[in-house]
Amino acid sequence: MAQDQPQGHPDQAARGPRGVGVTLGRGPRQGAASHGGHPRGVGKSVTLPPFQSLLDAHAPDLHRFLVVAVGRHDGDDLFQETVISALRSYPGLRHADNLRGWLFTIAHRKVIDQARRRVRQPVPAADPPDVPQLDADTIVDAELWDAVRRLPPKQRSAVVQRYLLDRPYAEIAAVIGSSEDAARQNVRAGLQRLRQEVTR
Amino acid sequence: MNATNSANELRGRSDRRGLGPADGDDGDDLGTRLRRADTTDVAALVDATLRRADAEGLVDVGWVVEDTPVGPLTLAATLAGVVRIEFGGGEQVLEELASEVSPRIVRLPGRLDGVRRELEEYFAGRRRSFDVPVDRRLSRGYRRTVLEALSREVPYGRTVSYKELAERTGNPKASRAVGSAMATNPIPIVVPCHRVLRTGGALGGYGGGLDTKVWLLRHEGALLG
Description:
The complex is a heterodimer.
Chain A: H1 51-70, H2 72-89, H3 99-120, H4 136-139, H5 142-150, H6 153-164, H7 169-176, H8 180-199
Helix pairs in contact in A: 1-2, 1-3, 1-6, 2-3, 3-7, 5-8, 6-7, 6-8, 7-8
Chain B: H1 3-17, H2 28-35, H3 42-55, E1 61-68, E2 71-77, E3 82-87, H4 92-100, E4 105-107, H5 113-123, H6 141-153, E5 160-161, H7 162-168, H8 175-183, E6 196-197, H9 210-219
Parallel strand pairs in B: 1-4, 5-6
Antiparallel strand pairs in B: 1-2, 2-3
Helix pairs in contact in B: 6-8, 7-8
């Protein structure tokens, strides 16, 4: 339940019925009615922003995060699953605090689910490495990406959030569902392990 | 650079700085290099995702911006039909729809195929009335009654005064209310509020601008010169 709501908000009570206008604590929208316009919404309550605005703001980072975490092919799939899960629960959100963190939390959970599926059904060792785009610039980092993807999911999310997306530890903590200290520790441990793997 | 160099670079850094806390910029080169990985056309992936979401019934409002002879129009539709047409391509209308219909609003051109085609035909002079379903949920009460009467009773190429329209809804003294119904018409052009003028033929107002009102009336042959 708590994971269906953006992190960092005390109001984690049961979700309201789907599709019911969700009221938030922001002020009224401005702007005047015009001919060919239409009546304004009611006074002080504000609904969630258009889902499109989340996509506009976060889709590229969300995709980057997933591609680095699980590879190009699975990254595209998990991107679709993340967006669809998000759309499914969006109208039930009770506040709009940290919607970015909420999206990445869903994505992080998709990565963990996928890692669990992988444990149950290991991919054949003969599979070619899942490397995003083998041009001259990127091929050199195949080793690095492979190493990133071998990190445990929490470390993987933490490292990618920190170094690919430049997110603060508080936000990383929200995404991986841990304390800020634990987020810091996951980044540190992930980096350390990467160094060992890549320098081996 | 090759993999060995990357590795050396990483090792060099750790030699230099030790494996201390990751707070500094130790990993920034990692970010720079990983960022190059992302060459997908994310827009295309988003479009495909939204089509899939639509198939699963998860898109409450789909919209698109369409260029027309009277400028760009933002077209929006629910599963029930066209719910909103707005002159221009602004963000404001999306926020209004998010708060008044549903926040599950995304760009979904396919949802608007029907009305786009009919508008194209209308602007090309090949269509005189619109057949696409409309969703009138943004109009209520008397305003809705008036807009429905307008759609039903004032055909292409004809005009009516605010007062006449009030009379036709059995409310002859309500021309002011008719005026506000026109001013808040959520679906202009398809619901033809441009055909409503002041008594005596003065243009009155129009949300898309008076130039647009004149353009539409001339296009329909309702205004000469």
